[in-house]
From TrEMBL:
GO terms for biological process: fatty acid beta-oxidation. This is 3-hydroxyacyl-CoA dehydrogenase. In the central section; belongs to the 3-hydroxyacyl-CoA dehydrogenase family. Belongs to the 3-hydroxyacyl-CoA dehydrogenase family. Pfam families: 3HCDH (PF00725), 3HCDH_N (PF02737), ECH_1 (PF00378). Residues 509-588 form the 3-hydroxyacyl-CoA dehydrogenase C-terminal domain. Coiled coil: none annotated.
Length: 689
């Protein structure tokens, strides 16, 4: 075993075979990457896997084939380095060695005098895509699930040639999009058609006979019958593109993500440096980042969304879940309409909306139909599926349509009395075992159910807006919610392809409680006399997806004020009521216009004479978060700190480099300063020691 190998490394073997291809006088050498598992455990490269590939290339070259091709097991090409081994590296020298090993092995395909091909038959990410870039030619399956260089998202850089090869293949604007922009947009993936249009692949082939067509195409290239032309890369615009990219990073991240800036520097190097110099710079950057706190937080966050989100803590036995054959939605507004489309599309069962009058019902159903039409027009849905969805979604003003529903969710006005009235009416209509779910963002599920004959079937089912985008679903157990109801809620959540977190029935649950406390400290600073722009940029060093005032505008000042009032009633010592926030909500004016604070809104404020500095605002906000999280954990709102982080990542879009929130509070000292203890043990989401 290599000195770099992880003790439990799942080895991706490079399996070599000779393939006779019609029209060629010599066999082709086909190397298939396969770790011995199905597509649910993708191919990755650790040291042993790289060594296996190295040996396969040696054997292939020795056979003097017509060409050498690399492909993957079914549905998977390779998803890159085995990142689970990175925390096991002992020192910077080992990090350099793993970078050099990948470069040395992959470069053999780039430098080969025998033509080399990558047959990208499935998902190709990170080092897997970099392997393909080293080959002279690339075919791509139209069925490949995901293509990306996501390293910056985790706190790394493409460290096996990606920063040097990609811009010199597809140009600096497109390379900047793939290496920087997409990872920082919640790790956006490329679809095969997009990758082909960018020039990453030379030809796009259908998946049904992908390998056969790839071999034929490669033979055509070798015989000189297929000409592969690539546009010349424009280097005159290189500096300008990177200047703009750096400005954008500064505006968005404010220096908070070291990997993004390292990647930018490497893209700059790629313009004029020879390949050896560029890859040496990659190795140094990789070694620096491997021992950064941001990477440890990124790996921790990655593990949360890949593992913990799929096995929710505290979820009951799946066997208790009831089947759901029809869904009812109370309300036909925007949130209800989004829910109707989601339920129909994922569960493939009838979904019926109700509201107070026919005009509202018609508007809600029309919204669903318009969204389906939009999917068809964009080529994201076929007409057959669209026709089926049209038939599944209906509306009525008569609540008796809920009589045969197995699952009914309300999305009405956020008022406890209104919601209690809804459930009191529906309990007389729905069958006894039907689950009653509330999409409340802050109200008590227990209080909502307390006057019902069967309170045990009421459960919180809190989505985040936009419903189709944000993956978090807070499933709230009321004091009397039974296991069958809870199991059904989790089963439905999984069918909806949401990441479910079990939350106890506490005011505003997790995300809204923390964001309200966070925004509350910012507005308390404004109320004290801190200029809006000072309070707004105080959190810039965290590199959050948006500044506080932009977040407030997205949530809606009226909604934020309402949730704040709910939390003030529950915890008056920690959640204040800002009259300035009420003034903004009542004005109906946008807080931010074209990324600038609205001067008219600023005139509405009545402030004190004790302004805070940016550092003071930031310290107060972090201290407030640390205090609130500790109290939530003590109250048992969630099982562990990891669930807090999962909620903030998936429901609020907080970045991987923060690990959600608790790793950042630990490494900045806020957790110990406020609570006297860390949220996570040393070495978890942080450097050990």
């Amino acid at each position: 075993m290599s000195a770099l190998a992880a003790p439990n490394e799942v080895i991706t073997k490079a399996l070599l075979r000779q393939v006779n291809v019609p029209g060629l006088d010599r066999p082709a050498a086909l190397i298939t990457l396969d770790n011995g598992f199905d597509h649910k455990k993708p191919n990755t490269f650790g040291p042993a896997g790289l060594t296996s590939l190295d040996e396969a290339i040696t054997a292939a070259l020795a056979a003097e084939p017509a060409f050498i091709a690399v492909t993957g097991k079914p549905y998977i090409f390779c998803v890159g380095a085995d990142i689970t081994a990175l925390p096991l590296l002992a020192d910077r020298a080992q990090a350099l060695e793993i970078g050099r090993l990948g470069h040395r092995v992959f470069a053999r395909l780039k430098d080969s005098e025998i033509p080399t091909f990558a047959f990208v038959n499935g998902a190709a990410m990170g080092g897997g895509l970099e392997l393909a870039l080293h080959c002279h030619y690339r075919t791509l399956s139209a069925g490949a699930a995901a293509l990306a260089l996501p390293e910056v998202f985790l706190g790394l850089i493409p460290g096996w040639g990606g920063t040097q090869l990609l811009p010199n293949l597809i140009g600096i604007p497109a390379a900047t999009q793939v290496i920087l922009q997409n990872p920082l947009m919640q790790n956006k993936m490329l679809k095969p058609k997009q990758a082909a249009e960018l020039g990453i692949a030379d030809v796009l082939l259908e998946p049904a006979d992908f390998l056969e067509r790839s071999l034929e195409w490669a033979a055509g290239v070798v015989r000189g019958e297929v000409a592969v032309t690539r546009p010349e890369v424009d280097k005159d615009m290189w500096a300008g593109v990177l200047y703009f990219a750096r400005q954008t990073l500064d505006q968005r991240l404010h220096g908070a993500v070291p990997s993004a800036y390292k990647a930018l520097d490497l893209l700059e190097t790629a313009k004029d440096a020879d390949f050896a110099t560029g890859t040496a710079a990659e190795e140094e950057a990789l070694a620096d980042l491997v021992f950064s706190e941001e990477l440890r937080s990124g790996l921790y966050a990655f593990d949360l969304v890949q593992r913990r989100a799929k096995r929710p803590a505290g979820a009951p036995d799946k066997g208790l879940a009831r089947s759901v054959t029809k869904v009812g939605i109370v309300g036909a507004g925007l949130m209800a309409s989004q829910l109707a489309l989601l339920f129909a599309r994922r569960l493939q069962v009838p979904v019926v909306l109700t509201d107070l009058d026919q005009a509202r019902v018609d508007k809600g159903v029309a919204y669903v139909h318009a969204q389906i039409e939009k999917q068809v027009s964009r080529g994201r849905m076929d007409k057959g599926t669209a026709a089926k969805l049209y038939g599944l979604v209906s509306g009525s003003v008569d609540k008796s349509v809920f009589a045969d529903c197995d699952f009914v969710i309300e999305a009405v006005f956020e008022d406890l009395a209104v919601k209690k009235q809804v459930w009191a009416e529906l309990e007389k209509i729905v069958k006894p075992e039907a689950v009653l779910a509330t999409n409340t963002s802050s109200l008590s599920v227990t209080a909502m159910a307390e006057e019902l004959t069967h309170p045990e079937r009421v459960v919180g089912f809190h989505f985040f807006n936009p419903v189709a985008v944000l993956p978090l679903l807070e499933i709230v157990r009321g004091e009397r919610t039974d296991d069958a109801t809870l199991a059904t809620a989790f089963a439905v959540g999984r069918q909806l392809k949401k990441s479910c977190v079990l939350v106890s029935d506490a005011p505003a649950f997790v995300v809204n409680r923390l964001l309200t406390r966070f925004l509350g400290t910012v507005f308390a600073a404004v109320d004290a006399g801190t200029p809006l722009e000072v309070a707004d940029r105080a959190l810039d060093p965290l590199g959050l997806p948006m500044r506080p005032l932009a977040l407030l505008q997205l949530v809606g000042p009226a909604v934020a004020y309402h949730v704040g009032g709910t939390l003030h009633a529950a915890f008056p010592d920690r959640f204040g009521v800002s009259e300035n926030l009420k003034r903004i909500a009542d004005s109906g004016q946008p807080i931010v216009v074209d990324d600038e604070i609205n001067a008219e809104v600023a005139k509405l404020l009545v402030v004190g004479d004790q302004p805070l500095t940016e550092e003071q605002v930031r310290t107060n906000a972090l201290d407030a978060l640390a205090q609130e999280i500790r109290l939530m954990l003590d109250e048992g709102v969630v099982a562990e700190a990891q669930d807090i982080d999962l909620c903030m990542i998936l429901g609020a879009g907080w970045p991987f480099h923060l690990g959600g929130v608790t790793p950042y509070l630990d490494r900045t000292g806020a957790s110990e300063r406020v609570t006297g203890q860390r949220f996570l043990p040393r070495g978890v989401a942080s450097l050990a020691g």
